[in-house]
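#structure-requests
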Amino acid sequence: MADEMVRQAQTFVNTAYEGKLGIDRVPVNGVTGWPTMFALTRALQYELGITPLSNNFGPGTLSTLTSKYPSLNDGTVPNANFARIIQAALYCKGYDGGGLDGKYNDRVQDSIVQVKKDMGVASAFPGSYLTPKVFKALLNMDAYVTVNNGSDKVRAVQQWLNGKFANRTDFFIIPCDGNHSRDVAKSMIYAVQFTSGMTDGQANGVFGPGTQAGLRQHTLSVGDTGTWVQLFTAGMVLNQRPAPFSSTFTSAISDAVRSFQSFVKLPVTGKGDYSTWASLLVSYGDQDRRGEACDGVTLITPARAKTLKDAGIKYLGRYLTNVDPTPSGDLKHKAIQPGELKTIADHGLRCFPIYQTFGRDADGFNYPLGRAAAQAAINAALDHGFKTGTRIFFAVDFDALDHEVTSNVLPHFKGIVDAVQDDGNRFGIGVYGPRNVCTRVSEAGHATASFVSDMSSGFSGNFGYPLPENWAYDQIVTRTIGSGDGSINIDHNIASGRDTGQGSFDTPRGTKDDTRLNSGVITAMEKDVGKYMESLGFPLNGGTRSYQHWKCFQSSVVDHDDVITELSNRYNMRKALIQTTTYWEMRHIDPLDEAAWASVIAAFNTTGKYIKDTSTGIAKQRAVALIGAWNHCLKKGYVTGEKVRDVSSDQDKYDIWKHSHDSETFALRSVAMIHNWDIDGKPGGDDDSKALRRPALDYKDGEIYEVLRRYQGPSEPAFTEAKKRMGLYYIMEKYNSISRNF
């Protein structure tokens, strides 16, 4: 909501410092935001004579302010604009700024007293004067009253931390808004370090060996009192455990500790021991713990399986697929390898499957890509032999901010849920990711268990968030165990018992040649494809495009199934590649395309000239690409019976273009030729991508992606569109797989 005094503060900074701050004018909208705070920070730096100006109220600004004005009051504020910066900051924080009259007046003094009280630093910085650290805290977006459904218990901890440690050089005032956060979590580390006796130069907010050593010396039990108990119970409060913030370790607190220890799978002692301290302070906790689970990218051989078994491992996470088209080195065996699950089962181990997409940022997550991920995971799980009921953990392997969880991750998992339901709920859904991602996805009803990437302690989605209630695996450290042939590098996980993977497996489906579609799957296949395309914004009735869904499906899948099957068998190329490319291109034909085709035909009939190389036919193929692909395949011996065409000849270009325009069969065969050309690196074409291995029925996701991408072109939107094509491919492959395994 707009505030008139904030509006006046914005007008002041724009007018008084016009052209002086090195930034654009602040929007005069009456709403406090970072642009206003940055402008006020720069205005302060300008008054202090600091150059260059910066948005950051950093050490230089604090040092200069401290040396010049260690105590600001009505007698020490140097000028009216300096006072107005203070008044403007107060208004932006929701306090009375005294009218922007350029004076450190009584109203300003009363507000400073209230601000210090709200911050919890009234005792540390008594009176109505403004200290540099409080000034720094005024020029950010932190709140010092409870907001966003914050907890009064958490706010009490925040105020205590400020009041207890604000006089330490490296401790800065944290928010007192009742919400746990990265800054609050880091302040707890500083507090532990200061209480351990570290100097300002030694304390750094990092949970390192010195901090750990200090905690090991302070195991707490019933009857203990003092600052260490306050720190420990603060940790309990911040982790949302039912314990009071107290300076005395009572029997009730001990009971709450037992509950927490049981929840995170620590020895249940009721004491504030080192492992419990660690679990309260950092996401990965005590990394010396030995858990019963692990995950990794290394092939499980009999020797490695024995190593894991001997180390007490029961549950092993392995990846269903590998998106890397040419995996090598440590990632060569990231995906489950043939025979590996049998080795795991033979050694009494259990496996839980993980599916990871291309997504390494928010752009890789949305509803259609979620549907695609689910179908890809289902296909792969069935290929490997995972049984019905297995829970698949879908990865969110990046530091998703909370707003990105809302805008991208949650819709993505809704897509996963819908696709799994459409498949008959054969598999369960888990989520892998930071704590906040896991919690929000699970609370939305999109996952039944969480695999928590707690090893990434610096992720904003881990810092300040409690362990999800439905956690199944807690990833805490990477270590190498075993020796010789049995040596293996793993991510070590604590297991809660909520998920136990699978200890026996169906016979893998294996790699088989494609066959004609079983007539019993065609109706379901058409419906599934239609649903996916609807999620991308393509209505079944075609919308503004030329062809409805049923017609595209009929032409690209059903009518020419014999031809597509023959091409697949000849070139060792999955039918789904040809089906996906053709259907996708046909769904994109619109009236403008058809008008362009008519113009090309009319011009050639009139002038004998091929006037424009426009894409044509059901697979939208250009003459230059057709000639390049067919000539290449003739040269390589992939095909016979066609003549070599001259790409500079209008007649040759028009002839092959018209053939693709008129004949759906020729267009489909040309899809296979273009795919072969692209796979070989498109020699003589417009794409300098490296050659892939020759078509194979066991192509990896990354190879499939590259084939689909190269068909469209060497630049955007081909890369983005290829991710969407992948979702279509997975659906096509689902039903082809059913048919060849019928």
